[in-house]
């Protein structure tokens, strides 16, 4: 799912469908993430074609696959700075789930984030693609640069991250605004101090270059790719840079590269509001809904509950460090429940408990969203590296507090619940120690083959309009439209969607300009 963390907690999390429950991937013995000298690469005979100038040694390297906890794992060497390919390098962790039948090629997958583990995602291949795709493709995932096993960027300790995620994401007065901005700057300063030179080289554009090196190392002439959520941004960036190398590409739950920071925040606020409305319409039909029997009144009750968490203590149990539900953790917990309509009954139970003074279930949902364990540790570094990637990919808003206040007011009508949570989401990039290297720009991918874009009408994290937006920009785009709830569509129960995507991946079927499911 596209995971989003609010200005503190729902910050720019765009992680893919299923990312909250992924199984573990490679064992630590197969993970080496430190920077090294360029060295020499083992040459491999492949059909991958010529490499860009100066990068031959990277493209020709041979992946040495080893058994790991789930499947096979290898390490891919890439330069930290593509402008200086003879300089320092890092190793990218890669996971392969071999085709169960006759192999047609390699399908590279990415679940989103930015910051979600592609290694873990590929390890769950049986649940993310159909049996037909599993039979025909090696499913390959990688942890993008700066993520988890690939030179992980870590700025603060677990306890400090707890405080950041649990803090108030919707400041109501000058004192709360000052506190939020101070915490954001403290995090940015910690990244400058602790993250090292990679902090300036974790952009989506650079991760897409890594993906082309991976294509070469896999021996594939073209890249077959399935990206969900932020993984669509990564795929679109790849298609723009390497259009002639695009094979069969599926982008599900789209984050368009031409969104400004303000458009990103506003779009997600409206997306989560739409998803909340769908949830409320369902919940209020049930006799035990803690929000009552009328959707509008239920929404107001939820807003009052969240606002009251600034002053009211709602206990929570079962955690080694956190003993109360804060607004930041509550927002994360609610967001997690909106990603999939199958989670709605659990969200109802969590809200019922929290409104009755027991925030244990809602906190647990928020911790799952952040990939945090009850013992206070985090499974990955998504909630840290997500900021590093986002702040590089597009410039931060200018104008300071006045800009965020204006955005809050602008979103009050269309996103009365989520607007205040997300209006401040770009603030952390204002004091970021590395200047943005990217900019909001449209993607044409001129000369590519057909690229399939999938949109879900009530997707909370990547609004349907964003899928339409990207498909219109692409020179050779195809839109699969799914009328449904939850984040992303492929592999989530729609036979119509799955059939269209499978026929494209397995048979190369040229889909019509729009398929409606």
UniProtKB/TrEMBL annotation:
<feature type="domain" description="Peptidase S33 tripeptidyl aminopeptidase-like C-terminal">
    <location>
        <begin position="416"/>
        <end position="517"/>
    </location>
</feature>
<dbReference type="Pfam" id="PF08386">
    <property type="entry name" value="Abhydrolase_4"/>
</dbReference>
<comment type="similarity">
    <text>Belongs to the peptidase S33 family.</text>
</comment>
<dbReference type="InterPro" id="IPR051601">
    <property type="entry name" value="Serine_prot/Carboxylest_S33"/>
</dbReference>
<dbReference type="GO" id="GO:0016787">
    <property type="term" value="F:hydrolase activity"/>
</dbReference>
<feature type="domain" description="AB hydrolase-1">
    <location>
        <begin position="107"/>
        <end position="319"/>
    </location>
</feature>
<protein>
    <submittedName>
        <fullName>Alpha/beta hydrolase</fullName>
    </submittedName>
</protein>
<keyword id="KW-0732">Signal</keyword>
<dbReference type="InterPro" id="IPR029058">
    <property type="entry name" value="AB_hydrolase_fold"/>
</dbReference>
<feature type="region of interest" description="Disordered">
    <location>
        <begin position="29"/>
        <end position="52"/>
    </location>
</feature>
<dbReference type="InterPro" id="IPR013595">
    <property type="entry name" value="Pept_S33_TAP-like_C"/>
</dbReference>
<dbReference type="Pfam" id="PF00561">
    <property type="entry name" value="Abhydrolase_1"/>
</dbReference>
<feature type="signal peptide">
    <location>
        <begin position="1"/>
        <end position="24"/>
    </location>
</feature>
<dbReference type="InterPro" id="IPR000073">
    <property type="entry name" value="AB_hydrolase_1"/>
</dbReference>
<keyword id="KW-0378">Hydrolase</keyword>
